[in-house]
Amino acid sequence: MKQHTIDAITDPVLTVEHLTMQFGGLVAVDDLSFNIGRGDITALIGPNGAGKTTVFNCITGFYKPTEGRIAMRRGRNVSDETIGALTETGRQFDRQGDAVYLLERMADFRITEQAGVARTFQNIRLFGGMTVLENLLVAQHNKLMKASNYSIGGLLGLPGYRRAADRAKEIAIEWLRHADLLDRADDPASDLSYGAQRRLEIVRAMCTEPSLLCLDEPAAGLNPRESNELNQLLRYIRDSHDVSILLIEHDMGVVMEISDHIIVLEYGKKIADGTAAEVRDDPAVIAAYLGVDDDEVDQVEEDLGLRKPDQPYDKSDLPGENT
Amino acid sequence: MEYFLQQLINGIALGSIYGLIAIGYTMVYGIIGMINFAHGEVFMIGSFVSLSVFLALGALGITFLPLVLIVMLIVAMACTSLWGWTVERVAYRPLRGSFRLAPLITAIGMSIFLQNFVQVTQGARIKPLPPQIEGGLTLMEGPGGITVQLSYMQIIIIATTIVLMAGFSYLINKTSLGRQQRACEQDRKMAALLGVNVDRTISLTFVLGASLAAVAGIMYLLYYGVIDFYIGFIAGVKAFTAAVLGGIGSLPGAMLGGLAIGLIETFWSGYFSVEYKDVAAFSILAIVLIFLPSGLLGRPEVEKV
Questions:
Q1: Cβ separation B195–A128 shorter than 8 A
Q2: Does an H or E element contain A103, and which?
Q3: What digits encode the pLDDT tens for the residues A189-206?
Q4: Which of A118, A141, A205 is closest, CB to CB, to B180?
Q5: Could you give the ipTM of this predicted complex?
Q6: Domains, chain A, ranges and CATH?
């Protein structure tokens, strides 16, 4: 297993530094810094209200962060100095040589189109009235529009457009095969089961050819069989495409099984950052999830059988029973 | 029987014109949820531009009718497209994030502006155009001298409408532009996140609607032979009614609604009284909406709880 601490990521695809997001007096994200390794599946976890979705919204341009820098290194060898120099210039990106984008400066649709960051939402946002295949074709429209000279070529059926359209369809069908949706290609997206809609949403995001795929609670509301299919799809995406995945997830089964790297938030601050094994045993994480103070964690862990009791404890010390 | 058939033909021809205008209303409503009340004026502009082109070509000595019609069509469509694009760009887009009624009021303002502009520059009197396409087919000759006539002009109107509707359905259902339009209609934010340029798609929607209205304007001019600055208002209200009757947001609904309004009007005029034809059309609209609140082909909005 790869070893991750925040310093061990030698090739980050996304670097978030000192990210702060305030809504009026509420600090939703407080001076948060982390790296996402290229080609990794990174999970962002934490109790409800920890600021996970706010971080997502900052990365994907829904919110403009109050402070901080979000650097997307689409090219492989972008040095910290390059990013520093780009920050000084006030420009949004540098595409000479290895591309790097400062997401906090960009509009949301450009973040998808140019910086290669795609996302899904907690609630499913498919185009329900369109067919499954059309949902995937919409996501590839940029190259289609270019090939069709903004639809005039498409109407006249020019060969360049035909080729691009056929290629887009091939890509879509390939993705449908991996999402196990090929036989539903011509059905309206709203007719799919919940789990199938989730998978369709993920492959639709992949059709924009992203470098970073952000998934907001992809396993929420899935039954065990469906979340297993989801895990397979995510592993396939990581193993066979040049894409890194960042996901928010509450389902610890999914998180522990597929994540290379886990970042834990609580009250907008990072409390742990490491591999699944490291995070699982971190007292601060256990405290955050169980809602107890740090000095009581040992006892809680003993209670959960996570640690051998080295001394007997008094039951009246447990939270909830001494009040 | 003959009388009935004749009214049916007249109704379909009139309904086709309403239907073409109604598509502009329904498309714009579908994509940005706004009633573009200036759309009827676009139809009127289409008529005026084509009349001007006709007179200008006549002054140049070009009278070969097919050529004249094609030039009229191209110039009118180009002018209304430009108008549709400009209005969206300057009057609607800046208000898109505003409250719901703001663009509606601007649209009414644009409508009044354009009506008055044409009234001032072109004069308030009606503008005649001598009939250009005369004659027709006698389909049936009944007893008592009642004949069923299908004029060449009616054939042109119905054929043009069918061709345009076929092309338009293809554009919406099969091309990349159509897919983007439908995507924006369902979820603009999500479409933007997939890299769709939402602003450009909305502009193109206005342009498409306006060019169809121009075609309707030319056909109105050739069919009735008289236009004035006020025809846009009347036709616009009727076409809007047609869009609502068919189910606003639905393209086949707009065409169906247009035909329905056209037929109701003609039959009422033919069998009862010409004065009350609008009363009849709007009464039937009210009755249909009581029983089918989302129109004939509209999708009812079901909210899952």
A1: no
A2: none
A3: 888 888 899 999 999 999
A4: A141
A5: 0.76
A6: 1-116+210-291 (3.40.50.300), 125-208 (no CATH)
